[in-house]
Design a protein that fits this description.
This protein has 91 residues and is an alpha+beta fold. It is built from 1 helix and 3 strands; from the N terminus they run ββαβ. Strands 2-1-3 form a 3-stranded antiparallel sheet. A hairpin with a 5-residue loop joins strand 1 and strand 2. The protein is flat, with a radius of gyration of 20 Å.
Length: 91
């Protein structure tokens, strides 16, 4: 039997329950880091031409993704979350 390990999160404010695995947590972290890099790059482009001159309009803007905060309830927005590791056995 194969075992799958997940993190079970329960919101202490509204009772919402959600699960995430190791891969989802890693992807989420990677997306957050990519967003941080893109934001820094965009800020650097903005500062290169702070007077709003025309060439600044042609500098590429790197998009940022909407990344779910796994430590925050998507139902009510509370960060009062109880976490526990749950192991499922799958055939």
């Amino acid at each position: 039997m194969k075992k799958i390990k997940e993190t079970k999160c329960t919101c202490k404010a509204c009772g919402e329950v959600w699960f995430y695995g190791k891969q989802e947590a890693a992807k989420n972290f990677g997306d957050k880091m990519k967003n941080a890099g893109n934001s820094m790059s965009n800020a650097g482009s903005d500062m290169m031409c702070c007077s709003g001159c025309l060439p600044a309009a042609f500098l590429p803007v790197k998009p940022t993704k909407d990344v779910r905060d796994l430590n925050k309830c998507s139902n009510c927005g509370s960060k009062a979350v109880k976490k526990e590791v749950v192991v499922h056995e799958v055939e």
